[in-house]
Specification:
Elements: H1 13-16, E1 23-27, H2 32-42, E2 47-52, H3 55-66, E3 72-76, H4 82-96, E4 101-104, H5 119-147, E5 151-156, H6 170-190, E6 195-202, H7 211-214, H8 217-224, H9 239-246, E7 257-260
Parallel strand pairs: 1-2, 1-4, 2-3, 4-5, 5-6, 6-7
Helix pairs in contact: 2-9, 4-5, 5-6
Length: 267
């Protein structure tokens, strides 16, 4: 097999990371991570389909994104519903003609000790984090395969998918470990269609959900002691990783879990 020839023009950094005119679908777009990534992709010229179950926050974000000079289509969707996910993807394709990038940010960060956790709460975590990720990947991949131009799917795992934690993370950590495996196996299944599937695995980061934990110095030290860089992340810390995985800069990267965790997985 002849070695692919890459011209010097294709190696220009600005071209490697060029996303202008691409279309990205972000689920869970109204959350702290989803909003940060939406803004980061928008300033890189990406048109956005923004999905969430929080209609008012979604509309506000769409207006903000349009102010950055790109198109934004807000769509309500419960990612645990196959019919709603399929409808969301159909509307996105009807509106923009394609989906180049999927970022599955919808998730449930429920913490509860297993002996106290009801089967209903366990199922909610699995339904949103695992089934929701699977349904969105499946629906978008179908369109990507039909279009025949490939694409980039980026899931959201977690450092908890690699490392256990005693404070009620059994359900959440198990769901994220499942997302990691799902990411890898989908990458193998869809590689022949030039669909790359990767995941980012964040450490704890500042958001409305984590502020009560991180604002308490004693409690925060339990988390920060595991992070070599010595701080919790902020949502903007993950934008660069998403831009990399969405762009031609990562054209030979698939089935990879990219830890953005201040070094936690190194220990």
């Amino acid at each position: 097999m002849p070695q692919p020839h890459i011209t010097s023009n294709e190696l220009v950094t600005s071209k490697l990371f060029d996303l202008k005119g691409k279309v990205a679908l972000i689920t869970g777009a109204s959350g702290a991570l989803g909003m940060a990534v939406a803004r980061g992709l928008a300033v890189n010229g990406v048109n956005l389909v923004l999905s969430s179950v929080e209609k008012e926050a979604l509309q506000q974000l769409a207006e903000e994104i349009r102010g950055l000079g790109v198109k934004a289509l807000p769509l309500y969707c419960d990612v645990t519903s196959e019919s709603q996910v399929d409808g969301m993807v159909d509307e996105a394709v009807a509106g923009f003609g394609k989906i180049d990038i999927l970022f599955t940010c919808a998730g449930l960060a429920h913490r509860e000790l297993l002996v106290d956790q009801s089967l209903e709460n366990w199922r909610k975590v699995m339904d949103v984090n695992v089934q929701g990720t699977l349904l969105c990947c499946k629906a978008v991949a179908k369109d990507m395969i039909k279009r025949g131009e490939g694409g980039s799917i980026i899931t959201v795992g977690s450092v908890r998918g690699h490392h256990a934690h005693r404070d009620g993370y059994t359900g959440y950590g198990t769901s994220k470990a499942a997302v990691h495996y799902l990411t890898k196996t989908l990458a193998f299944e869809w590689a022949e269609h030039n669909i790359r599937v990767n995941s980012i695995a964040p450490c704890i980061f500042w958001s409305d959900l984590t502020e009560p934990m991180l604002s308490d110095d004693k409690n925060a030290q339990k988390y920060l002691a595991r992070i070599p860089l010595g701080r919790a992340a902020i949502p903007e810390d993950f934008v660069g990783a998403v831009v990399f995985l969405a762009s031609a800069a990562s054209s030979m990267v698939t089935a990879h879990i990219l830890s953005v965790d201040g070094g936690v997985v190194g220990g």
